[in-house]
TrEMBL record:
Gene3D superfamilies, A to Z: Spore Coat Polysaccharide Biosynthesis Protein SpsA, Chain A (3.90.550.10)
Stated name of the protein: Glycosyltransferase family 2 protein
Presence of the UniProt keyword Membrane in the record: yes
InterPro entries recorded: Glyco_trans_2-like (IPR001173), Glycosyltransferase_2 (IPR050256), Nucleotide-diphossugar_trans (IPR029044)
PANTHER family, alphabetized: UNDECAPRENYL-PHOSPHATE 4-DEOXY-4-FORMAMIDO-L-ARABINOSE TRANSFERASE, UNDECAPRENYL-PHOSPHATE 4-DEOXY-4-FORMAMIDO-L-ARABINOSE TRANSFERASE-RELATED
Domain Glycosyltransferase 2-like: 9-170
Length: 245
């Protein structure tokens, strides 16, 4: 694999996903090899299984694979933030590490940001044909409906891990736990457009969910109020020019 400066960084937050490591990395490679110079950054969020060992084994075969490790689990938003801060690409794409997000859609998301020519700050995957349980889908519908009614972000599905965005735009955003669920509203707050890409959901490769089963509505109510406040308090960004003598 090329070790040249990447233009795209793929960030994958994981916790206890040992059996999903190698298959998902192979799929990411199949989707992106030959398209962009890219790197893959796995953020090992305090795993207690063989996740770190499996990543170390694949790193011997792929020079563009990096592993960051949290000493203890900080949650999905913290893992994504660690990956974005370490990323070398101008465009960052994210996906969940359980295999439910199909890497085949990464090129469409990355291209949507590129084609935005600086206007598009985020390309958000919107799931169709979800493979979750009926209760989990119900939770998501309620949470997305409440969020959209309050924030009016025009997004039907903020829970999809498949996203691509400009790294500099992400780093402008205020950080808090749960940030990943409010990216469309916060990116709009900074004055950027959102592109939407339909993606097909699929069952996870193996294991059980390690992030966010009850993270749909009640835990996020305070976050929702906070984001609403941030949007209401936003002032236009001044145009700045440097005056030379």
């Amino acid at each position: 694999m090329s070790t040249s400066q990447p233009s795209v960084s793929i960030v994958v937050p994981v916790r206890n996903e040992a059996d999903n490591i190698a298959p998902l990395i192979a799929e990411i490679g199949a989707a992106l090899d030959g398209r962009w110079p890219y790197e893959i950054i796995y953020v090992n969020d305090g795993s207690t299984d063989a996740t770190g060992d499996r990543l170390a084994a694949v790193m011997k075969e792929r020079s563009n694979l990096r592993q960051l490790r949290h000493a203890r689990s900080g949650g999905q938003s913290a893992a994504v933030r660690s990956g974005v801060r370490a990323a070398r690409g101008e465009i960052v794409a994210t996906l969940d590490g359980d295999g439910q997000n199909n890497p085949a859609f990464l090129p469409d998301l990355i291209a949507a940001v590129e084609k935005g020519a600086g206007r598009v700050g985020l390309a958000a995957g919107q799931r169709v044909g979800r493979k979750d349980t009926g209760f989990k889908k119900f939770q998501s519908r309620v949470a997305n409906g409440v969020r959209n009614a309050i924030l009016k972000d025009g997004t039907r599905d903020t829970g999809c891990g498949l996203k691509a965005f400009r790294r500099d735009v992400f780093l402008m955003l205020p950080y808090f736990d749960g940030l990943h669920r409010f990216l469309p509203a916060l990116v709009r707050r900074e004055g950027y457009d959102i592109a939407y890409v339909d993606v097909i959901d699929r069952p996870r490769h193996s294991g059980v969910s390690n992030y966010g089963f009850f993270d749909r509505l009640w835990i996020g109510i305070m976050d929702l109020a906070g984001v609403w406040w941030l949007i209401r308090r936003k002032k236009p960004t001044p145009e700045v020019t440097e005056v030379n003598a």
